[in-house]
Amino acid sequence: MGKAHRREVESYAQDSLCGGGKRNGRSKKWKEMLKLPHISQCEELRRTIERDYSSLCEKQPIGRLLFRQFCDTRPELKRCIEFLDAVVRAFPLAPTCHFLHGGPGGMGLRPGGGWGVEINMSLFNVIFFISSCCCAPFSAYQETMYFSRFLQWKWLERQPVTKNTFRHYRVLGKGGFGEVCACQVRATGKMYACKKLEKKRVKKRKGEAMALNEKRILEKVNSNFVVSLAYAYETKDALCLVLTIMNGGDLKFHIYNMGNSGFDEQRAIFYAAEICCGLEDLHRERIVYRDLKPENILLDDRGHIRISDLGLAVQIPEGETIRGRVGTVGYMAPEVIQNESYTFSPDWWGLGCLIFEMIQGQSPFRRRKERVKREEVDRRVREDQEEYSDKFSEEAKDICRLLLAKDPKERLGCQGRGAVEVKQHPIFRNINFKRLEANMLDPPFIPDPRAVYCKDVLDIEQFSTVKGVNLDPTDDDFYHKFVTGSVSIPWQNEVLHLPGKRS
């Protein structure tokens, strides 16, 4: 039985790939690429890996699966797993159980939520609660083959990532420092978007801090509503961020290039609800986004959205505020324009701008393609009241007015409860946020897989050659910080959910 258990992860990531003889975009050598090392090659990793229960057994998907398999071999622990499964079946949309490493006395089923129960318990607390004969299961796990198998997967995860890890396809668009193209992992067939940051262009614009900040923030966030970073590597000429591919285009394209400008209110509110969830996930990590606008909101092939381009995002230390006039003209909040201190208020202002633009078909303080000086747009933001057409229902007007309050102290989302305040607005009465967060609601628009929701590649402006900039060894420290290879959670999800996997 133990051997069968130990091979279960491989059956997820390897054996199940062979259905019908199709490789689903994988290289002919995919088995070799995903071959686990001999356990003797993992001894250094065994000595140095951080023995943190939350990271190893909760957050990392392969670690979570292997720890669960270990528990299944111990009758007293298996009962705990079965209990937790029964709780999840009874409350499928309740908050996820958090299997935090703890001791007796902390477990609780607390009242709260629409289901009459909020589940927030420690696996170990449940274990102690159910069976006193259990002793330090996490420590015992580390002495088993299950943990050794986890180390083998971690060894594979930490292998160098280069341009040869991927196949590279058509250009999708352009970022601030280079092109964005489609790419495919040779070993798994999974498609991503590769955002290239040309080294000379980054150096010329003194963009090192901005690039490294975006990369580090992307690593911190694990959200269904924010693009995920899966890999970071370098070539001779570029630094590369490999991100969630979003085939449905951006909201700007859909607002202005799909017939009449703007969306019907139902569609706009669905996107607003998903954006609200994305902002909530960012704010939970104390990250303020600061650049909410239609071109930064991308659709996937199912029609769900994700927030992208976190170059201006910043993490705010607990109990502190920040200043900084950053963002896009016409979308910056009054407190940003006036260089006042703030925390998360600019993001709720940005959501107001975005809801207005999705419904009206133009931004609240600047008409489409209007030629106007920046100073005038800033004045309108500070002083003018936005005007509403008959496209807006009373509830749509109300949420926009509340989000676009000039004074952040009066703004919806800034009264102490953040996203909860926004979610409770009547305009979202038909949105079940628990189902939305569980990816169980159908979007109002599904992109046509045969369509291309972006400019033709010939219309994408080419970057000019950077002149007068030379790369030298002093740049290597920045590159070393940037180039960290695979990101654990996305990589492990990738190998556990390979194309062609049988259920």
From TrEMBL:
It is an enzyme of class 2 (transferase). Residues 166-428 form the Protein kinase domain. The active site is at residue 291. Its EC number is 2.7.11.-. It catalyses: [G-protein-coupled receptor] + ATP = [G-protein-coupled receptor]-phosphate + ADP + H(+). SUPFAM superfamilies: Protein kinase-like (PK-like), Regulator of G-protein signaling, RGS. GO terms for biological process: regulation of signal transduction; signal transduction. GO terms for molecular function: ATP binding; rhodopsin kinase activity. Gene3D superfamilies: Phosphorylase Kinase, domain 1, Regulator of G-protein Signalling 4, domain 2, Transferase(Phosphotransferase) domain 1. One of its GO terms (cellular component) is cytoplasm. Residues 429-494 form the AGC-kinase C-terminal domain. Residues 59-87 form the RGS domain. It comes from the Eukaryota. InterPro entries: AGC-kinase_C, GPCR_kinase, Kinase-like_dom_sf, Prot_kinase_dom, Protein_kinase_ATP_BS, RGS, RGS_sf, RGS_subdomain_2. Belongs to the protein kinase superfamily. AGC Ser/Thr protein kinase family. GPRK subfamily. This is G protein-coupled receptor kinase.
